[in-house]
## 1
Amino acid sequence: MDEVSVVHNPDKSRYELLVDGELHGLIDYVDRRGTFILTHTEVDPHLRNKGLGERLVHDTLADLRANDRAFVPTCPFIVAYVRRHRDEGSTAPST
C-alpha cells in the first residue's frame, strides 16, 4: 500500500478512498440545499483496522470545511469520529 488519497466524486455523490489508484472505500452523501448529509461509510474488509476509515472521514470533513460546506453525519462511524475529534471544528460553515 503505497499511495492513499481521498477524492470527491460529485457525479456519484460520494467521497472515494483510493489506494494505489484503486477504489477501496467511500462515503456516500445526499446534498440537501448545500448541506451534505453523510449517510454511509465503507472500507474494503481486507483493509480495515489500518486507519483508512479514519483517513477517509478526516479528509472528507477537511474538504467540506475547506469549501465552506455544512454537513450532518448520520453514519454511525462518522458520528463517532466527530465526537472523538471535536477539536477539528464544527459541522457549520464559517461565516
## 2
Amino acid sequence: MQHHALAVLALAVSVWPSAAQITMEQAVRGAAEKYPAVRASLEEVAAAAAAINLARTSYLPRADFLGQVNRATHNNVFGMVLPQPLPVIPTVSGPVLRTNSLGNVWGTALGAMVSWEPFDFGLRKATVEASRSTRERAEAQVAVTRLQVSTAAADAFLTMLAAEQTLGAARAAVARARVLDEVVSALAKSELRPGAEASRAHAELAQAEIQVAQARQAVEVSRAALAQVLGLPAAQVAVVAGRLLEAPAPVGALGEHASAAHPVAVAQNKAVEQVKAREKVLDRSWYPRFNLAGALYARGTGVQPDGATGNAASGLGPNIQNWGVGLSVTFPALDLAGLRARRQIEQHHEAAEQARYAQLLQDLDGQTARARAQLDGARRVAELAPVQLKAARDTESQATARYQAGLGGIVDVAEAQRLRTQAEIDNALARLAVWRALLGLAAAQGDLAPFLDLAK
C-alpha cells in the first residue's frame, strides 16, 4: 500500500510540475492520465484480457479428484431413475439381495478422472478469438475516452483563459471609468459642467465595476470546471496562456485525417468484428465433440455380494480397484435449429453495427466540414478584430478630446469607452475563438496531438 501511494504521488508530481501554473499540454495530459473514466476503461481492458486467458484454459486437460466416506444402508432394487435436475436420490451399486433392512455399513471411495478434448473443429480457437475481439473493442474504447476527456480539458482550459481575458479588459475599463469619474466630478464641483454629467460618470463607473464582478465570477466558474476535469482543488488551478493569445498557424498544420481512423470509428469497427467473432463461434458449435477420458478409482464397502457384513470397521478402506480409458463422442443433432436462430440474431446485430459504423463515418465527415467552416469564420473575425479595436480607441480619444474642449458631452465619452472595452474583449476572444475552432477540428479528426504542438 505504501509503494502504491508513493507511485501515485510520483505520477502527480510528474503530471503537475507546478500546482500554480498549468499549460494546455499539461492539462490535457493530466486529464487523460488521471480522469476516473480513463482508469475505468483501462480496467475493462484488463478484464477482457483475463477473459482471453480464461478461454485458453479450454485447451488444457481437466482433472477431477474424489474422496468419500459414508455410512448407509445397502438395499438395492431393479429399475430406472430418470435424470434428476438435482441429485435427490443417491445411486446404490451391487446386486439386488431381495432384502429391506435398515442395517448399515461403511463405504469409501477414492478416484481420479482426467479428460481432454483432442480436437474440436476450431470451436476453442473461435472462442478465444471472440474474447480477443472483446479486448480489442475495450482498448479502442479507451482511446475514445481519452479523446473525450482530453477535448473536455482543452475546452475548459480555453474557457478559463477567455474568462481571464475578459476580466482583464473589464478591469482596464474600470480604470478608465474611474479617471473619467474623477475628472467630471472635479469639473462639476467647479461648476464647469452640470451635475448630471457627474451622476452619469458615477453610473458608468458602477457599471464597469459590475462587469468586473461578472467577469470574476466567470473566471471562478471556469476554474472550477477545469479543476473538476483535472481532479485538483480549484484553488490550485491557474492557466498559462503560452501561444494561445497569438494568432495560430494555418489550418494545414493539423494535416488530414481519414474518418475511418477516428477513435470513435475504430471502436465501432471493433464492435462489428466482435459480432462476427460470435458468429464464428456459432458456426463451430454444430460439430461432434470428442472427449478422451481416463479414470482410476477404488472403493470399499462393509457388505459382501451375498449380503454378509463385516466387523465395525469393515469398509473404511478402499479394497477394490479399477481403471479405465475411453473416447466418447457427443453430437448435438437437434441443436441445429436453435443454432440457426441464434446465428440469425447475430447477423441482425452485425447489420445494425455496420449501419452504426456507416452513420458514424457520415457524422464525422460532417463534423469535420463544420469545424473547418467555423475555423474559416473565426479566422476572418480575428483578422477584423484589430481594425475594430483601433477604430474604437481612436473614437475614444476623439470623444475625450471633444469633451475636454467643451464640444461634446459625457454621453459621447461614455459610449466611446464602452465601445473600446467591448472591442478589447472581442479582440482578445477572437484569437481564442480561432484556437477553439482548431480544437474542434482536431477533435473531429480524432487526434489532438497536432493541436497541442501548435499551442506549445
## 3
Amino acid sequence: MKKHLLFVCTSGMDRSPCAANLFKHSKKYEAKFAGISLGSEVLLTKEAIAWADIIFTMEPVHQMHVLEKFRKEIGESSKRVILLDVDNCWKRHDRALEELLVGKLQGEGFLRRDGGKE
C-alpha cells in the first residue's frame, strides 16, 4: 500500500501542486496538495489531514496552521508534519522550484538521490 503525502502551501496553486506532481508516477507514494487560504484551488480539510500519512508544509505559517487548526487529528494519529521551508516566490512550472523541492525531498529521504523514482 502506498504512503499518502500531503503538501500544504498558501493557495495550493504553485508550490504544493509542483511538489505533489513529483510523485505522479511513484510506486511508493501517492501525493495530494492543499492550501490554507479561503481562495485556495484545493482547500485544506480534516478529510485531507485524515488521508495523509505525512504532511509537508512550505512555510512556518503553514506548519503552525496545520498544527493548530488540526491539533486533534494530528495528535490522535501522531502524523509527521515536515517543514520544507520554501518561500512563496515561485510559479508552478518553474524548473528552479522543481529542483529546489527535489533537493529538499531528497534530504528528507522521500526521493532517491540517483534520480530514480520511488
